[in-house]
Amino acid sequence: MDHRVKKQIFILTGFILITGLFSFLVYLVVHNPANCFDGIQNQDEVGVDCGDVCEKQCELKPEDIKVIFTKVIPTLPQKYNMILKFSNPNATYGVKSVDYVVKFFNESRVIADHTGSFYILPNDTKTVILNALDMELEPDNVSVTIENIEWIKLQNYQTAPQIVVKNQFYHELVNQTAFSEIKGVTVNRSDFDFDKIDVNILLFDSNKEIIDGTFTEVRTLFSGEEREFIANWFYLVQNPASVEIEADTNVFESDNFMKRYGSPEKFQEL
After folding, report:
1. How far is CA 69 from CA 43, 58, 87, 143, in A?
2. Are strands 66-76 and 79-88 parallel, antiparallel or unpaired?
3. Residue 244: is it exposed, middle or buried by C-beta count within 10 angstroms (0-12/13-18/19+)?
4. What pLDDT, in 10s, does the model give residues 195-215?
5. Is the per-residue pLDDT at 269 higher than 50?
6. What are phi and psi for residue 9, nearest 5 degrees?
7. E-state strands within the chain
8. Under a CB-based contact definition with an 8 Å cutoff, are residues 241 and 201 in contact?
9. Who contacts 259 (Cβ-Cβ below 8 Å, separation ≥6)?
10. Beta bridge partners of 186
11. Bridge-partner residues for 144, per DSSP?
């Protein structure tokens, strides 16, 4: 084989190799197979490079807190109570603190507003009771907005601390400053000691409609301990057909855990 033929074969071989390499690179760019490190949500991934076929678990954004109930209740002249209920649909995210703003309207005009905050556990509802709101006109509409949510993710969360209420008794008073009162006993059946227990009390008529509500608190409730609470009404209240009492505590607030046993970190490990 002469030198000219060898040179032609060498050039042709080089051309084929270069063309093949270029074609392969183009193929990789155009037909890059989906994987768990490509920065693209594909191949049935729940998020970008996470979930389903990928080993990495997705950090999903929690769903918004929802307003599920509102009711304004006139009590005295130009005085009103309000009952609000919120829902947290998230199974692993609780809220250490969230702000809310209530605006009260009369004929589309804002006549008053109120701001506050609350906490709420995963997969839970939260009742907020506002008492003795001053308004010259009776509101015919309200709006509630949620702001500044401080999410807390709980690992292996199953249930809230077991704080129950027993021996509840509502009755009207005679020859007293207050019109009526309710008594009950809170029982801490959890393994933790708490500095403050929030107690919400709702009164219902025979149609299961809320007719009024109030709140109180129990301070320093140790694990296994029982403690009585009393709340009063200082105005005429329709005699309730039933009473509902909710007792809960802010497990996300470190100052709420007594030093003897528990801490928010230990609770969140349950």
Report:
1. 41, 32, 9, 11
2. antiparallel
3. middle
4. 999 999 999 999 999 999 999
5. no
6. -65, -40
7. 66-76, 79-88, 93-106, 109-120, 124-134, 141-153, 163-172, 180-188, 194-204, 210-221, 226-233, 242-248
8. no
9. none
10. 165, 227
11. 102
